[in-house]
Amino acid sequence: MQNPILKLWLAFCTLLPLGIFLLIGASYKPPESLFYWSWIPSLDINFSLRLDGLSVLFASLISGVGFLIQLYAVAYMKPYKGRAAFHLYLTLFMLAMLGLVLADNLLLLFVFWELTTLTSYLLIGFNHEKEISRKNALQAMLVTGSGGLAMLAGLIMLGEMAGTYSISAIITQGTSLVQHSWFTPSLLLILLGAFTKSAQFPFHFWLPGAMAAPTPVSAYLHSSTMVKAGIYLLARMLPVYGDSALWFTLLCSAGAFTALWCAIQAYRQTDLKLMLAFSTNVILGQLVMLIGIGSSYAVTAALLLIAAHSFYKAGLFMVVGNIDKATGTREYHELAGLRAVLTISFIAALVTAASKAGLPPSFGFLSKEYLYKAGLEFGWLLSGSMLLANAIMVALGLLIIIKPFLSPHHEKAAPMKAIEHNQLLWIPPIVLALLSVVVPVALLNWYQGLVIDPAAAVMLPDTQVKTVKLWEGFNLPLLLSALTLILGIVLYVVYPRLKPRLDQLMSGLPSGPGVYQHILNAVIKLANWQTRILQHGHLTQYSLQFFIVLLAFLGTALWKIVLWQVHPLPSIELDLYYYDIILAAFLVIAAFVVVKARTLLLAVAALGTIGFLTTMVFLVYSAPDVAKTQLLVETLMVVFIAIVLRHLSAVNSVPRHSTSRRLVHACVAIGIGVSISLALWIITATPMNQEISEFYAQTSVSGGKGRNIVNVILVDFRAFDTLGEAVVVVIAGLAAVAVMAGKRINKLVSESTRENR
Amino acid sequence: MEFLWCLVVGLMTACGVFLMLERHIVRFLFGMILVSNAINLAIFVAGRLTRGNPPLIASDALLPAAGYANPLPQALILTAIVIGFGLLLFTLLLAYRAIKELGTADMDKMQHAETEQ
């Protein structure tokens, strides 16, 4: 660490979370503190932050664990290139995560939600030279990002249902939204967001994939923060959706299944880090299930488990990181006797693994007791599956301790080197290990008053939670805990025989990443296919697509009006003079002549005729100014086209479309024509609002000092429009000259005239 | 009488659209002129037709004679005609340039926006 700027930067990144942690502690006054800045008031989006029991738990975990992670990363990332950037990403991620748990506005919450997705992409893909890192980072981003989009729709529906986007205001409305027809769709969409973020089955696969990240990232994002964002959202929404049967069913089934499935997956892993990743899935599943149950015990258990898991899982990840550093491998059968070099890490591992396995008096034991209490209220199915999952946790805890640290040296063991002279590598895990024991033993009352009671009051406004005790005498949950331990030891003992069988059994099943890859490939195929169909490079087909879409829009609108009699069709009034009919007839004939003309000259002549006939129409129907303009413009147009005409290719030089294609064109054209006629006819039959026209007529003399109302509108009332129009014509003229690219207009004219002579 | 002009506008639009679907770029241009004329007429008709009573105020009056023609669509069309002319001029020269550069007036052969390296 020679570079003083780098030193300063690392110090800043490390101290920032500590400062935030202290700030949160100082500004938190139960039950809640509000910070409020107006942001986009017209859209009801305020930058409002709320610090209540639930957010203080998450915010202090994020900043507190964040501080330890930054410390650890300073030591761990030392040999890496771009470590300054790494700390930047980590800090940005932490800030996004803090924003997420503090936001009191649904849309603000979404913004931070997506920011965590983006920053975690940078972190997971930090080793971007490796293809697997890039791939898994993208996978995590696509899965959580698409879930986030679904959640946005759900949040907007929730906000519209409640009439406000303020989360605290929505929560006070509580379960009153249940009758609303958007209740179920919004519930499903929000669950999709939470399940993808918190890696619930079938979206669980991105989390183990994200282990491609450096270990500090896994310790932070995939134990205590990012994956808990979904848990936080569910806990927040509990007062709104908690009473719904769908909520209970979906959360309990998804959570329990995720826990069980991922426990089995974790049991099969040989890489210690992957083992921890899958066991994180297990805890997330249990948390989702607990929030789904939503009883007083369940909420208490969830609030205990969130903190307990953050402590021991972050600690264990760091220990695995140290093992990796000391030996260069994380495969447990290549590890042995590490107790000799990683003494302090071994102690940290011992304590955190005990908490993971749920041995008394650890934090993990406490949360497991309450997990069983909550599960037992809802029968044996939930508690049974939790028992199995927890037993596997015990087996894994034993494995993590015994295999790398205690087993005697064997010939396959990787060589190891001492690394613990760097204190930053062992201080953070040992602090977390200490917390795993100190909080349940000594600080339980403090935790109860500061976190559990206020947070439970937010999640369950109507229920009083009981005081948490470490020792409640001999009861059924304790018996289950004992059973878990015995079963766990059995599972550890039979592990060498059971694992091959499991592998054999599971090998036929489709894997999550495989399915994801299939879907991704299918999407790319679909995109290719539709690009080939739509973007073929034939200009006339583009025009055809455009007009077909136009016809579809016009057609559906008119279809409703005409067939469903939304509007009765107007009667036909024909108070016509002979010149009306003559003008109309000539216009139509001239239009057909343009279509049928086989020489450009005839077409131009017919176009000119149409222009002059239109002039006549304007003249007949009291629009002298329009007629004058049309006459001038039409004359100029004919002159211009006549000048260029000689340089344009003859009609016959280009082959026509096939007859069938032209038939399709005719149908589209006639369809559009009929739609326009019909629409116009219905418009002319509906009463017209004359207000604006009358205003102009009345104020023309008094306001505009003019007696030609149309002129006054153009040069006075709408003068800026006219200025804009003049500018458009000037720009069109300049652009036209540019298109000629040096070929002077007068040269063009002289060429034309010379040829004609 | 509006009904008659509704029909005329529809027919002109149909002819214009049919021309805009042709392969010859100049015929496409003619279609565009036809459609823009038709749409101007459509706006005019939508504002109702009045015979022989233009929106003018006599020198001794403050208001136009009762039953005066609707001035608003007239102002709109006036702007539209001028802008339409600018657009037409530009498109005409663009078409001319395209024909010169690419050596064809066939829109389906105008495929390469940039010459391939």
User: What structural class do helix, strand and pairing data of chain A support?
Assistant: mainly alpha
Main β-sheet description of chain A: 2 strands, antiparallel
What's the assembly state of these chains?
heterodimer
Total of helices of chain B: 3
Strand composition percent of chain A:
under 5%
- Report how far apart the termini of chain B are: 60 Å
Query: Hey, roughly how much beta strand do the residues of chain B contain?
Result: under 5%
What does the largest sheet of chain B look like?
none
User: Which descriptor suits the 3D outline of chain A?
Assistant: elongated
Mean pLDDT of chain B: 88
Task: Kindly state the percentage of residues in helix of chain B.
Answer: 55-70%
User: Looking across the biggest beta sheet of chain A, what order are the strands in?
Assistant: 1-2
Which two chains form the greatest contact, residue counts included?
Answer: A-B, 100 and 89 residues
Written overview of the protein:
The complex is a heterodimer of chains A (757) and B (117). In chain A, 75% of the residues lie in helices and 2% in strands. Chain A is mainly alpha-helical and 757 residues long. Chain A folds into four domains: 1-199 and 212-242, no CATH class; 244-507, no CATH class; 540-699, Four Helix Bundle (Hemerythrin (Met), subunit A); 700-757, no CATH class. In chain A, strand 1 (32-40) and strand 2 (45-52) form a beta hairpin. In chain A, helix 27 (709-717) crosses helix 28 (719-740). The mean pLDDT of chain B is 88. In chain B, 57% of the residues are buried. The longest helix of chain B is centred in the last third of the chain and has 32 residues, at 71-102. Chain B has a domain at 2-48 and 71-103. Chain B is mainly α. In chain B, helix 1 (2-20) packs antiparallel against helix 2 and helix 2 (25-46) packs antiparallel against helix 3 (71-102). Helix content of chain B is 62%, strand content 0%. Chains A and B meet through helix 21, helix 22, helix 23, helix 24 and helix 25 of A and helix 1, helix 2 and helix 3 of B.
